[in-house]
């Protein structure tokens, strides 16, 4: 079963802002070239979550993992993203959608950030 990954971030009109999110996508491709991955954004730029899902499903993905690249778990992560996932699921009832915890909830990420802060 093909699993696609959507890196979901807030979004910005400034294309430079997207660089770190796109860098994560590139790292996924470099580590696992057969895994389809796309970036998606909640607002201010595209593609949207629905557009990214459509593209991955169109390419044959039967399962989608949505990774919110949010450090804090605010209204977007708690309320908006689950609503958007319900809409995607309604459009694609035959695919399996998995919402991963937000990046800021990852002990690996918080540990890495601490390590970076403590480094010389």
List the helices and strands and how they pair.
Layout: E1 3-9, H1 19-31, E2 37-41, H2 49-58, E3 63-68, H3 75-91, E4 96-99, H4 107-118
Parallel strand pairs: 1-2, 1-3, 3-4
Helix pairs in contact: 2-3
What can you tell me about this protein's structure?
The protein has helices at 19-31, 49-58, 75-91, 107-118; strands at 3-9, 37-41, 63-68, 96-99. With 120 residues, it is of the alpha/beta class. Strands 2-1-3-4 form a four-stranded parallel beta sheet, with helices on both faces. Helix 2 runs parallel beside helix 3 (75-91). The longest helix is centred in the C-terminal third of the chain and has 17 residues, at 75-91. It is globular. The model has no long low-confidence stretch (mean pLDDT 93).
Radius of gyration: 15 Å
Coarse shape: globular
Summarize the biggest pleated sheet: 4 strands, parallel
- Overall mean confidence score, pLDDT: 93
Q: How many extended strands?
A: 4
Range of helix content: 40-55%
Quaternary state of this entry equals single chain
Classification by helices and strands: alpha/beta
Helix/strand order: EHEHEHEH
Strand order of the largest sheet: 2-1-3-4
What low-confidence regions span 5 or more consecutive residues with pLDDT below 50? Answer: none
Q: Number of helical segments?
A: 4
What distance lies between the first and last C-alpha atoms, to the nearest angstrom? 44 Å
Strand content: 15-25%
């Amino acid at each position: 079963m093909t699993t696609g990954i959507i890196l979901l971030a807030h979004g910005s009109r400034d294309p430079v802002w997207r660089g770190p999110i796109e860098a994560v996508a590139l790292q996924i491709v470099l580590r696992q070239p057969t895994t389809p991955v796309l970036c998606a954004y909640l607002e201010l730029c595209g593609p949207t979550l629905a557009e990214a899902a459509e593209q991955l499903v169109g390419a044959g993905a039967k399962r989608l993992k949505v990774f919110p690249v949010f450090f804090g778990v605010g209204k977007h992560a708690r309320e908006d993203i689950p609503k958007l996932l319900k809409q995607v699921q309604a459009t694609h009832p035959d695919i399996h959608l998995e919402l991963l915890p937000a990046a800021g909830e990852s002990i690996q990420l918080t540990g890495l950030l601490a390590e970076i802060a403590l480094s010389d």
